[in-house]
Write a structure and sequence with these properties.
5 strands, 8 helices, 257 residues, alpha/beta, Restriction endonuclease, 2 domains, membrane, 5-stranded mixed sheet, Restrct_endonuc_IV_Mrr
Length: 257
């Protein structure tokens, strides 16, 4: 001790007590760091701050800081660490509330990208029916199977017209021919009373088939148009058929009601 300097027992005891706390924090941090970091990321912050406190204690001992100043710094650091840990825990526990849509905003249409060529024939018909439901059709029904007479999916469009769809899940090398269009054209209007007849395929159509479809008023949806319709890049096939034109000039073979 220096001559003339009084021995402060209280300050000395506080200093060594804080030093002991710092050493305990360091040991506890080294032992529990990995486990706590995996289970509780918030408490990992407390561990890091504990290590920082230990460094402050060591540095303060070298710089000759008084025990009182060291106590103030340590207390402030512990308060900050506690506040930070509590904030992180509150963020983890806070429930995630979805943002409310803006007033007047339209509900977004859910678009699911599907590779229709990978589906079975029954799954393909079901996928087309789901597209009809997505685009606002009512009374959507999958009627494909034996004795369906060419109608695989029927629905009522948003404007009230009856839509009859035939589905052809073909490979790229198998195009829909004119004979298949003729069979569908012979039943879609007279038997199923379609206002809009659509033939959807995962391949394409031959030129005679498209010519016949144009004469009969059948809408042809090939693989490219189907992909655009499915991904929301193009409107539903029946959306491009004006109601007035169809009623004014019924296609050949269709009975006028």
């Amino acid at each position: 001790m220096r001559p003339g300097r009084r021995f402060d027992l209280r300050a000395t005891a506080m200093f060594f007590g804080l030093a002991a706390v710092g050493l305990c924090v360091v040991g506890w941090a080294l032992r529990m760091a990995f486990d706590v970091a995996e289970r509780r990321p918030a408490w990992a912050v407390v561990l890091v701050l504990g290590l920082v406190l230990a460094g402050i204690v060591h540095r303060s001992g070298r710089s000759g800081l008084s025990a009182r100043r060291l106590a103030r710094r340590t207390t402030g650091a512990l308060q900050e660490a506690t506040a930070t840990a509590m904030e992180v825990l509150e963020e983890e526990r806070a429930p995630v509330v979805p943002a409310a849509p803006a007033p007047g905003a339209e509900e977004a249409v859910t678009v699911v990208v599907v590779d229709h060529r990978e589906l079975s024939p029954d799954e393909f018909e079901q996928a087309i029916a789901e597209l009809c439901v997505r685009d606002g059709c009512a009374d959507v029904e999958v009627v494909g199977g034996a004795g369906d007479l060419g109608a695989d999916v029927t629905a009522i469009a948003p404007d009230g017209r009856r839509v009859v769809i035939q589905c052809k899940r073909y490979g790229d090398d198998n195009k829909v021919g004119s004979q298949e269009l003729q069979r569908f054209g012979g039943t879609c209007f007279t038997v199923h009373e379609a206002d809009v007849a659509v033939l959807v395929t995962t391949s394409d159509f031959t030129e005679p088939a498209t010519d016949y479809a144009a004469q009969c008023g059948i809408l042809c949806v090939n693989e490219e148009r189907l992909r655009e319709w499915s991904e929301g890049l193009a409107p539903a096939p029946w959306a491009g058929v004006p109601f007035a034109e169809e009623e004014a000039a019924p296609p050949p073979g269709r009975a006028v009601r």
